[in-house]
Each structure stands twice: as structure tokens, then as C-alpha cells.
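Each record in this resource describes a single protein on a pair of labelled lines. With that in mind, the following record should read easily:

===
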Amino acid sequence: MILSLALLALALDTQDAQTAQAPVTPQAEQEISDEARAAAYAYAQQIAGFAAETVEREAGGHYALINTETLAAELAEHFAVVMTYGDAEPGDYNMEMRATFFSVAEGATPSGMYCAEGVPSTMVDQTVEDSAGNALRFRGCWGGEQDAETGRLTAGVIYQMDRNGHYALYQGLIDGPDEEGLRERLLLLEPAIGVLVTHTVFVPESE
């Protein structure tokens, strides 16, 4: 799972995705302070809430969140590590989480934020079972872009589930000044995307 901006041909059109952003403010010491943990937990609560709202608004009853009482705490552990990683100046890097749910007709091609079949940045594409035992296709991919005016880089990873044309996607993004810093922080953020996936299940009755 090595991120190389030279290979990131996937265009991330995320205009329809719901977003929530937080600054990555490194700590002077390796140990994570109580203040940093509190900030990470506050952001995790925001993400848990917005994920629930997005499912309610966009999923059309095809997906549901489970074990929501532990979601924020699980996310916070990962956010705290990302938000305090390294020795960059505050504001050099920012973290953002996005989510979207949609359905497409059989044979139709999705638009917007999704991992297309066979893109070079695909890291996994297989059939899995969600936490409720429902069979789904799971796909993960990387993406990135550079702002033409500022030169600032953005890199992201998408975790995507779909079944019979019903899609659930979560995306984590890091923006910053250099590729190495993005790669390091995105690898730390990726498990948080996995947490959202494990708390999201398909609803078979909706088919």
C-alpha cells in the first residue's frame, strides 16, 4: 500500500460527498497529551454524528450503522495519532473524512466519489462479509491531486462496499506540502476508515 502521486491517476470528484475536516497539529512530545486526546474525541464525535446523519439521509434504507455507542471512542484512538504525528508546523497538514451512499441501476456507471473497477490505485477488490454476515463486494483505492495554483497536495483512500448497485463509501484525506508527509499520515488514518466500515452493514430487507 505505497502511495505514489505519480501513479495516482484516479480523479476524485467528491462534490456530492459529505465532509468534516480537522487540523493536524503535531505535539512537541511523542506522548499524546490529554488535551490532544480530548480534541481527537471531539472530532470523532463529530464524525460519528455526521456518518449517522449521512446514512439516514442518503442510504435509502440499504445500509445502517451498528454499535454506534462505541464508534466515537474507536475513531478517536486513530484520530489522536494522526493529529499529533510528526514535527510539522500546525496547519501544515489537515485531515478530512467524507462519506456518501448511493444506488445505481444495473449496468450503470456510478459518478462522483467511488473506486472504479481496475483503476491502477486499487489495493483490494474482493467479496467480503460485513459485521452482520451479509455478502458484499469490497474495494479500496488510493487517489491524489495537486492544486495547480498553490502546489499543495491532497491524498486520500476510499473504502467502498456495494451490493446489487447499492454503494457505501468512506474516504479519508490528508492535504499538505509534501508527498512523504501525506503518505505517512494517510497510512495512520486508514484504520479509522476501516472502523467506519465495520460499523456499517447492509440491510437485506431493502433489496
